[in-house]
Amino acid sequence: MKVLIAGSGGQLGRALQLVAPAEMIVVAPPEAAFDITDADAVARVVAQVQPHAIINAAAYTAVDRAESDEASARAVNVNAVGTLASAARVAGAAFVHVSTDFVFDGAAHVPYPPDAAANPLGVYGRTKLDGEIAAAEFHPAPLLVRTAWVYAADGSNFVATMLRLMRERTEIRVVADQFGTPTHATSLARTIWALLAGGHTGTFHATDSGTATWYDFAVAIYEEARAAGLLARDVAVVPIRTADYPTPAGRPAFGVLDKTATWAITGPARHWRAELRDCLAAMKARA
């Protein structure tokens, strides 16, 4: 199967290339050669590659900036999704699109199943939801994969930010009343490949196992980084409320996703802390 990846330079795009099954022929053009906001460029690349599947790993993910720059968020998270889905349909290719827990409002107290009613709180979540709608409008049978709190050994993400702050400060304050699941880009990529290889369509949820608050995640990063030798000093991690750290965009207080249907196919994911340990080990190896 020949698979064309959009967003090849992002943390998920890189992970998809790293763990691609041997039977997959992966084509991952750089953004300069595959600008998904340019319909002509998309049509040209798809015609050249003639893929059996397209995976859209690209997204506008600047949650707070989106509140004042909806046009840019919509161009990538909605319009480009429709363009890619349409190109996949014309090529007779499968289409995989990655979405987010931010399509939900966080008012639930149990994990959100794939068919739960969406109610995004801000521009980012609304554009991601509209992207899901565009995928279904322009492709007859897309595979939609919602995830949450994605990080990797490289790129800009919560783990990298926490490590930088812990090296700069003796105390950091982290929100302790928002719940979700940290997700290693590598494990997410493996799940996407498994669903695609199995010919699955529809909406699936994919994160690592377990739940955490951002505070829990930060404490784990500190403890595991110290154990791995990536952090040489003590740092106090202090829990705070969301109200103590106001941001332009609202965030779901509870963004845990129900992965029952996904795990029936792939088997349960590893716990997020085990995946964090692997990510930090990769960081140490690169250092």
* Helix segment tally: 9
Per CATH, the class of the domain at 2-152 and 181-210 and 256-269 reads Alpha Beta
Q: From the alpha carbons, calculate the radius of gyration and give it in angstroms.
A: 19 Å
Reported for the largest beta sheet, the result is: 6 strands, parallel
Q: In whole angstroms, how far apart are the ends?
A: 35 Å
Describe the structure.
By secondary structure, this protein is α/β, with parallel strands linked by helices. The protein has a domain of 195 residues: NAD(P)-binding Rossmann-like Domain (Rossmann fold, 3-Layer(aba) Sandwich). 41% of the residues lie in helices and 16% in strands. The chain has a six-stranded parallel β-sheet, with helices on both faces. Strands 6-9 form a two-stranded parallel sheet. Strands 7-12 form a two-stranded parallel sheet. β4, α4 and β5 form a beta-alpha-beta unit. The radius of gyration is 19 Å and the shape is globular. The two termini are 35 Å apart. The model has no long low-confidence stretch (mean pLDDT 97).
